[in-house]
Backbone:
């Protein structure tokens, strides 16, 4: 059982929805990023999605692209992201951390070595945008074997015929992408999302978390209300990009978390 | 060895792999689209009416077959191998790019797609796509790095004349790879009505195989044209082409992969020289295997797996990757890959103008520079075929600048 599985079991027992926050590791620099990550659990974040910067984030909108560029310019590497997780784990051994990014930095690091390092640092799950089920041999299966969750994205284009393939080697939770598009784009609508979540839940016992297009406490509440929880990324990254003090960013995160927890 | 040779034309496998290269490294949103494209392409490939439409347009719209031309003065001056130029620069729109665009757009029409998107570097693929979209009355959006928009103004104007919307890309560093990222972002957003027309033998399966199949018309023509001029059954001894992503080269090479007597040479852009400062875009000579834009291939990247920018005098070659089939041909040793510097390409550019009255694009000037190196060392009965894949009209300003002249 990973920290992710334990977290969902605890939330279920309390009858609560999950709030997942995405932040870019190393944005705007290592220290300020770590300070933000450390503050997330107290702001009500149930699961932390830590973005690993990449030069070519083809599924991300401008907000997350720019955050990745700032992080890379400040010297962020996969090695330093692992170090950030280690630093976080000295004060928090329960909040799950999901590493989210693209395959090349991991491939370049070496899959086997990466899985050892990720486990040792305290990462619980992986979301790798450019690894669909067709490429499961690359990282998904080795990761599951190494005891890490591999969280898959399901999207509006994942039809019923394809859904079992997407769910087959998924663990931890299913990340439903609410829109066809990139991060930070169109607004998610609970009325559109609800039947899609139901469609996925009919095929799996895993929790279904919805992301993309959620920016406000109200949407956080309405979307979490029709799923097992929701993810906010671009809106938090944008608040960080405005150069607000960490406590202000965390106050915004808390308002989003409260929204999800009201649902 | 025989077994190995037997297999060279069979790729890719059902997972879209050439050896370890290729594959389908895309987000889930795109995966169903890619599978649908593969299915539709497999159907079209064996449909005579599809190829009948292609043949008609190749002949009457593009001007195929392009001539296979014996370059007599070049041959004489270099004093060795007999040099033939495959004149794909004479195609409509001035380069080989249209061979592939026609195929993809006809496929898009069959699939009921009404909106075509494309990425472009120097603008040749963008112009070809805008051209064919105009011909068929389809909406066309071309993503082009902001820096390339600046330095390729004539092609930007051409695309706009042809009715395309040109979107300057400022994300990342505003180059060809970023244009490809933005095209993928567009596709992921407009999945229902949009067809992504990729300009080279890269991207997720089935693109590398599909683009290669459309460009293979180049090598197929060379086979019969050479037999016509040199006698039945005579094959080239060497085939040579320039490589950015590698589509013109793959088109020339593929029909000869299983002819072991034919030496295959790809020429990458060495920029200021393949060095540690990465002032080149020779992915095979200076890169390492990685995953980008839907496929595994050789990439220019740093110690952390972050992608680096290529550098070349030729905007059509400065892509940090290369088609996966080339990566595989490189590893298996079936093809040889070399690099040529900007300076050598400029010399070849002038050599072609002076000896044959052909103003070449800077891309094939790289291939010609390698021809100039090896032809003198080869016997006179050695037949060397080089793909003159584009004409140089678009490059005269850049060349003038490098030669110290300002054309205003």
Residues:
């Amino acid at each position: 059982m990973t920290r992710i599985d334990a977290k969902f079991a605890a939330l279920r027992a309390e009858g609560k929805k999950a709030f997942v926050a995405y932040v870019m590791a190393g944005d705007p620099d290592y220290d300020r990023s770590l300070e933000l990550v450390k503050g997330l659990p107290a702001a009500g974040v149930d699961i932390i999605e830590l973005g690993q910067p990449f030069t070519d984030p083809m599924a991300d909108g401008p907000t997350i692209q720019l955050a990745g560029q700032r992080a890379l310019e400040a010297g962020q590497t996969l090695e330093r992201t692992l170090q950030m997780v280690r630093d976080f784990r000295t004060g928090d051994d329960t909040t799950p951390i999901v590493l989210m990014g693209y395959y090349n930095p991991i491939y370049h690091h070496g899959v086997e070595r990466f899985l050892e390092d990720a486990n040792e640092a305290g990462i619980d799950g992986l979301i790798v945008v450019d690894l669909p089920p067709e490429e499961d041999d690359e990282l998904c299966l080795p990761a599951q074997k190494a005891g890490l969750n591999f969280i898959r994205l399901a999207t509006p284009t994942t039809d019923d015929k394809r859904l079992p393939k997407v769910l087959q080697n998924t663990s931890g939770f299913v990340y439903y992408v609410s829109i066809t598009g990139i991060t930070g784009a169109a607004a998610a609508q609970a009325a559109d999302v609800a039947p899609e979540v139901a469609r996925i839940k009919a095929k799996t016992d895993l929790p279904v978390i919805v992301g993309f297009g959620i920016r406000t406490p109200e949407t956080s509440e309405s979307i979490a209300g029709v799923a097992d929880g929701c993810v906010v990324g671009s809106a938090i990254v944008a608040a960080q990009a405005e150069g607000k003090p960490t406590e202000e960013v965390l106050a915004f995160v808390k308002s989003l978390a409260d929204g999800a927890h009201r649902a | 060895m025989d077994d190995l040779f037997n297999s060279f034309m069979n790729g890719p496998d059902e997972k879209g792999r050439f050896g370890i290269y290729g594959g389908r490294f895309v987000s889930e949103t795109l995966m169903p689209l890619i599978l649908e494209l593969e299915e539709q392409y497999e159907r079209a490939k064996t449909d005579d009416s599809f190829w009948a439409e292609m043949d008609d347009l190749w002949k009457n719209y593009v001007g195929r077959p392009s001539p296979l031309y014996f370059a007599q003065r070049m041959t004489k001056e270099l004093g060795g191998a007999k040099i033939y130029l495959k004149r794909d620069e004479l195609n409509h729109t001035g380069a080989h790019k249209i061979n592939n665009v026609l195929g993809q757009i006809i496929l898009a029409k069959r699939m009921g797609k009404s909106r075509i998107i494309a990425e472009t570097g120097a603008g040749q693929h963008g112009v070809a796509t805008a051209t064919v979209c105009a011909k068929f009355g389809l909406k066309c959006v071309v993503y082009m790095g902001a820096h390339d928009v600046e330095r390729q103004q004539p092609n930007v104007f051409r695309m706009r004349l042809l009715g395309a919307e040109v979107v300057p890309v400022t994300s990342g560093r505003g180059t060809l790879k970023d244009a490809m990222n933005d095209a993928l972002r567009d596709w992921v957003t407009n999945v229902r009505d949009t067809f992504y027309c990729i300009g080279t033998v890269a991207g997720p399966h089935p693109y590398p195989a599909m683009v290669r199949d459309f460009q293979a018309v180049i090598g197929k023509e060379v086979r019969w044209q050479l037999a016509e001029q040199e006698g039945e059954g005579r094959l080239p001894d060497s085939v040579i082409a320039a490589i950015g992503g590698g589509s013109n080269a793959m088109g020339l090479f593929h029909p000869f992969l299983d002819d072991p007597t034919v030496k295959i040479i790809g020429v990458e852009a060495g920029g200021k020289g393949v060095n540690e400062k990465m002032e080149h875009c020779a992915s095979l000579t200076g890169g390492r295997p990685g995953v980008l834009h839907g496929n595994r291939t050789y990439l220019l990247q740093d110690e952390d797996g972050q992608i680096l920018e290529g550098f070349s005098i030729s905007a059509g070659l400065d892509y940090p990757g290369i088609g996966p089939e080339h990566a595989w041909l490189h590893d298996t040793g079936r093809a040889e890959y070399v690099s040529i510097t900007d300076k050598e390409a400029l010399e070849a550019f002038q050599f072609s103008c002076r000896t044959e009255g052909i103003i070449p694009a800077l891309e094939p000037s790289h291939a010609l520079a390698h021809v100039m190196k090896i032809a003198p060392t080869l016997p006179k009965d050695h037949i060397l075929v080089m793909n003159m894949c584009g004409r140089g009209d678009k490059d005269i300003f850049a060349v003038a600048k490098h030669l110290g002249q300002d054309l205003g």
